[in-house]
Amino acid sequence: MRPCFYDFPDDAKCWEVEDQYMYGPKYLCCPIFEAGLKKRKLYLPEGKWAPLNGGDAMAGGREIEVDCPIELMPIFIRQN
Q1: Domains of the chain: which residue ranges?
Q2: Are 36 and 6 in contact (CB under 8 A)?
Q3: Which ranges in the chain belong to alpha helices (H)?
């Protein structure tokens, strides 16, 4: 586990993100810290990212909002 700026030192937004982390160089983990939360905003660093639970890859370098049901933590896989 490490902060996002470790893998993306040139991305200024990654230096500001405090509530998500990288698990190795491939997985972006976005924990839920509020009870009853149904959606969560998160930042995808530069590159392509695919949701771990399936779905299309999307471009990074932007903030997105994702569903976050109680049984699923938002995790994204970095695409090569």
Answers
A1: 4-79
A2: no
A3: 4-7
Distance CA 7, CA 71 (A): 28
Q: How far apart are CA 52 and CA 35, in angstroms?
A: 22
Give pTM, 2 decimals: 0.91
CATH code matching the domain that covers 4-79, chosen among 2.60.40.1180, 3.30.420.40, 3.40.630.30, 3.40.1170.60? 2.60.40.1180
pLDDT in tens, 1-29: 999 999 999 999 999 999 999 999 999 99
Catalogue the E-assigned strands of the chain: 21-23, 27-29, 39-44, 48-51, 58-59, 62-67, 75-79
Q: Within 10 Å of residue 7's Cβ, how many Cβ atoms?
A: 17
Cβ atoms of residues 64 and 35 within 8 Å: no
